[in-house]
Specification:
There is one protein chain. This protein is an alpha+beta fold. The strands form 5 sheets. Strands 10, 14, 16, 18, 19, 21 and 22 form a 7-stranded mixed sheet that branches. Helix 1 crosses helix 2. The longest helix has 37 residues. It is elongated and about 130 Å long.
């Protein structure tokens, strides 16, 4: 506190001793500022380039310079305001069909606002030309390549197919880049130790061309994850399919056993009546000493193994009418 009082006292003493000189100096600076800001000055600076393209069905795909160099001339006080608020743009209205064009900006394209608009003359220094490429905007469906990997916990399994919805999404963008786009991707994600039905949404990665807009931003991923169950089913009958008219077949042995494996909700209710095991008819079925493999009709979400026996003999019998 004592130090603060000492500093304040010294400042007060300085003002008391030199207040006339300080006031005179400030008054002189003010007069100088009024004189200087009343003169005309030239000033070189940059202003943003703004391009409007009125047709919503087209888009400019070429790279446009972000700024233009200009020379302004006007009173210093208005120049001071311009430096504070940057009230200027190079505005170009490009109302053209798709194609490549050379645009030549002029001084009249320099748009100023505020006091600069009334008091400044202007001259464009750069650019003298701008290459403009215009393309048609189109919407197209693009396939999505999924990089989401689901891994159940040991003792669990995915029943059926993993569902990805939608499998293609709409994009909007310039015609040439959109037509060259053959696929989009999700991020590479691996989800492990899953043991419940899975459902989530995942974003699609933006393609390198930032002018392409993905209208459907994500996809849904769903999987039915169930506890793994394996059981043995015996006494499954074996038949012969596609027999000629009035021909019966005797299969030896007549039955088989196998193990079925899959999600508990799918495997638990299965019996021998749900398993279709068969041999397809062929002309050499009755070849002496020859046996044939069987076919198990697939059941979604179920795997078959340990089929016993796996080969069978067939005898054809003509039906007596």
């Amino acid at each position: 506190m004592a130090a603060n009082r000492i500093i304040w006292k010294k400042g007060k003493d300085l003002w008391d001793r030199h207040k006339i000189k300080i006031a005179a100096t400030l008054f002189a600076v003010f007069i100088w500022f009024l004189v200087v800001t009343g003169d005309n000055y030239e000033y070189r600076t940059t202003i943003p380039i703004e391009i409007t393209q009125p047709n919503p069905g087209y888009i400019i795909t070429s790279t446009i310079p972000p700024e233009a160099a200009v020379q302004l001339q006007g009173p210093g006080k208005h120049l001071f305001s311009f430096l504070l608020f940057r009230e200027g743009r190079l505005r170009l209205n490009i109302d053209k069909e798709p194609g490549v064009y050379v645009v030549r900006p002029t001084d009249s394209d320099i748009s100023l606002s505020g006091s600069a608009k009334r008091h400044f003359s202007r001259r464009l220094l750069w650019p003298d030309t701008i290459m403009v490429k215009i393309e048609k905007l189109i919407t197209r469906k693009i396939p999505v390549r999924n990089n989401i990997a689901l891994k159940p916990q040991p003792g669990y399994t995915i029943v059926g197919e993993v569902v990805y919805e939608p499998d293609s999404v709409r994009v909007l963008g310039p015609e040439n880049p959109v037509r060259a786009l053959d696929s989009l991707y999700t991020k590479s994600i691996q989800l492990a130790d899953l043991k419940y039905p899975f459902s989530d949404r995942f974003d699609i990665i933006q393609p390198p061309n930032e002018q392409i807009q993905i209208l459907d931003r994500d996809i849904a991923v769903e999987a039915d994850i169930q506890k793994l169950l394996e059981k043995t089913i015996s006494n499954v009958p074996v038949t012969v399919r596609y027999l000629p008219h009035q021909i019966d077949a005797i299969v030896t042995p007549a039955q088989l056993s196998l193990k079925v494996q899959g999600g508990v909700n799918v495997v638990f209710p299965l019996t021998d009546k749900n398993i279709n095991a068969y041999i397809e008819y062929r002309q050499d079925l009755e070849t002496h000493g020859k046996d044939f493999p069987i076919i198990i009709e697939p059941i979604p979400g179920v795997r078959f193994r340990d089929i016993k026996p796996d080969r069978f003999k067939v005898r054809l019998v003509r039906r007596q009418d």
